[in-house]
Amino acid sequence: MVQEGKPRSEGIHVTDTEGERIPITHLSQVAAVICLGYAALPFLHPPLESPVLSLPGFLLILPVSLSSLPAVWVTLLVISGMDWILQEREDPLPLRSRVVHWPLPALVAWALSVPLGTLQVGLQWWLIFGLGSGLLIAVMAAEYVAAGRVGAGQFWAYITLTAASFALFLILAVTLRATGTRLYLQWLVLVPAIMLIVLRHLSLRLTERWAWEWAAVVGLLMVQISTGLHYLPLKPLSYGLTLTGLAYALTSLAGALEEGRPWRSAWVEPVVMLSVLLLLAVVLER
Questions:
Q1: Where are its TM segments located (predicted)?
Q2: pTM of the full predicted structure?
Q3: For residue 207, what pLDDT is reported?
Q4: I need a surface site. Which of 127, 131, 140, 188 has the fewest CB within 10 A?
């Protein structure tokens, strides 16, 4: 029963705040081991025998190196660490609910291993290592908050996960362009990444409803867009900003349409963000 004269929202606010406390000790332990795994990547460059797929008119070579092994290990470590942190909640979640919060941190962990495993150790490597590790920790913390009850923390988690997702996509696009990765290999990396980002973004925006059809549509459009941009003489950063701007615009438009917003307002945010990123890409191309 609710006592007279006491606002009902006050109790809800206190409960939400307590339920969103992040287990700093567990998170710091997971982060320390993850950083140790990333630190080992530059020392594991000797290539293994790459598998070759011969098709009529095509010869597909999938580059495999020893750096792939710790990258897989780090990804699995992030998944187990994320699950361990979620089990520390005061209201334990069943396995089916915890699985929802695994893919995005795992994608961030795997994506960061791409530049950290290919670049030489230097200022750029340390910059990616520092910013990337902070990004991964922020994503894990945001997923922990997103697993709680709807409250003030949910908005923070939504913003953090959205920004981190597209920052991750930008890192992937720039790295693949800078290393001269073949087009079909770019598809194998960028298309699954953007599909997962679209699914997670829309599930947060639409309250845990998974829009698989939009993920497939955006993935197919990314294949076409990345193919066209691949043959343009763009610098890696300009290429990444253009591709990320288009990916964000499509994802944001899908969310607005799923929410039932009219066209006259649904296009505003996608067009504004796309214009900003395209303008930045043009400036950096000079």
A1: 27-45, 57-79, 125-146, 155-178, 184-202, 214-232, 238-257, 266-284
A2: 0.73
A3: 67
A4: 127
